[in-house]
Fold this sequence. Notes:
The chain is an alpha+beta fold and about 180 residues long.
Amino acid sequence: xxxxxxxxxxxxxxxxxxxxxxxxxxxxxxxxTVPLAETSEVYRQYRHLPGVRAAFIRQxxxxxxxxxxxxxxxxxxxxxxxxxxxxxxxxEEYIRDMATLRTMYEKTDNGYNVxxxxxxxxxxxxxxxxxxxxxxxxxSFFSVRMCIAVFHTHTQQEIQTVLGKSFHNDIDIDKQ
Length: 176
């Protein structure tokens, strides 16, 4: 190999490595992007709220056999979290209670995963559940994390599984 060829090799080699990494990152990012039409109603409703990062996660593992779609709404600060709760129709008393819980638990080791979970009407986390389980899903409020997770369930069994795992803090929303 001549001196000129070696110079060209050492100039092109790093460029090809960077190009490979860039293409891999683009493919990975694109693979995880869900078209808006395939996301949840909750995601579409709250994704533009200022100070809130919204994510729609497909097939979130709940246990060894159950995977559910999930919408995660994470506030950047306490004011954005209060605005998110207001947008969901929560009362000022509820918002104060969540702030109090955040203050109370944020300095404890287990406070990060403290959550309040319940059923809600599908697509409307602020509304009470319907008598038909097929019209409901599970919503969890994490006061210390200032985030809300909506698990898009379809059956009573899925609802019971998510509520049970949530009660025992067995669902790790950080996996995704």
